Every structure is written in C-alpha cells, then in structure tokens.
Amino acid sequence: MSNxxxxxxxxxxxxxxxxxxxxxxxxxxxxxxxxxxxxxxxSSLDYYQFLAGRFAVKEAxxxxxxxxYPEINFDFRNVETIRISNGAPRFNGNENVLKILPQIGASDxxxxxxxxxxxxxxxAELIK
Length: 128
Prior knowledge:
Layout: E1 4-13, H1 14-23, H2 27-32, H3 35-42, H4 47-66, E2 79-83, E3 89-93, H5 95-103, E4 108-116, E5 119-127
Antiparallel strand pairs: 1-5, 2-3, 4-5
C-alpha cells in the first residue's frame, strides 16, 4: 500500500514572477512569502529564481492537498519552504496547514525544487 496520499507539481517562469512583482510595486512578494523565505531570498545568488522556486512549492502543495481534498480551505501564505543545513528545501507549514494534515491522514509533505534557464519546477507529496 502506498504512503503517498497526494501529489502536486508546478512550473514557474522566473521572469513572470519578477515582472508580476514589479507591476505590483513589490506587493506580490510581500504578500506571498514569509519573512523567513524573504530573508533566505536576500542571501541567495538569484533573488527571483529563489522566490520562483518557493512559489512553485506553494502551488504544488496546494495541488497535492486541494486536488484530492477540495473541501480544504487553503492559503498560500501558510506554506513555507526552509533550507536545511545542506541547502536542500524542506516544507515548513504554519499551524493552519499543520492542522489540515491530520484531517486528511497525512503526516508530512515532501518537496523538491529544480530549475533550468527561466523555469523552476517543484513537486510536493503528501505522506501518510
């Protein structure tokens, strides 16, 4: 029996994230990402590439949860991606997302981010 309850994947253009943030005078970034994500982005080699990856994770987590459990009320700001000691990304949900997981029988969400050129992709798996 599988331990995966749901899967989500997303593909994001770095340029589109940059342009959207410019059109909205920085409000997209301020309203979408956590303080910790913004701090990590500030110390990254490519600010918008970093944020595009984090946005792709938010979308992938949304798809993994709401694609299988549409009754769940979901907010992107509740999904945070942190860097562990080796630099790899790890899902870090706030208390609102952490309340959702037991409701759907999940214990964790595993994520991965990859980029090539202007594109960033992320995958999220709901783990039993």
